[in-house]
Amino acid sequence: MIYGVGIDLVENDRLAKIISKWGDKFLQRVFCDSEIKYCGKHTQSSINYGARFAAKESFLKALGIGLGMGVKFKEIEVVNDKNGKPDLLLRGEAKKQIEKKRIAEVHLSLTHTKNYASAIVLLEKK
Fold this sequence. Notes:
three-stranded antiparallel β-sheet, single chain, alpha+beta
């Protein structure tokens, strides 16, 4: 049974400007070290940061909560399996919310172009 669905769209240029202005302070506040390392390997890192930012927002929307309602962005990490498929690694309050709401599966899909990055998260209940 579907518990929730969240979707988000990020303008990559807008995110690039934020990163340019705030640098590591912004990156360290929003992204995990492995995400920073992954995105930093790419020429246009803002595209990959955008997809990960969208994934974090989408997860919160699928839970039915917003930023500042207990779950921190760094508790939501985008990881890739051995085939490159994106997945979410949840910690802290994000993981507690999944357990509390009896969510059995978390599905994530990412897409991006030069201008936009998007993510969708679908939560399945046990």
